[in-house]
Amino acid sequence: MSIPSNIAEGYGRKTTADYIKSLYIAYGSNCELETQIMLGGDLGYIDSDILESIKDDIHEVERMLKALIKSLENKHLNP
Question: What pLDDT was estimated at residue 61?
């Protein structure tokens, strides 16, 4: 499943806890993607300029996921 699909599925769940769980799955998928992209760079399949741009995008998604998870966890624990 893709990162946006994980997020959408979690958003459609009934509880915040389920949404947070899906966001953690999306975070894991993002980490997996980063590993695959780095491997592609190491093997010479991805140009270094493009590789850096993709890694920047992956890190931006990671930052946004972390912020959303933190926000929802704080809201969930302190209603």
Answer: 97
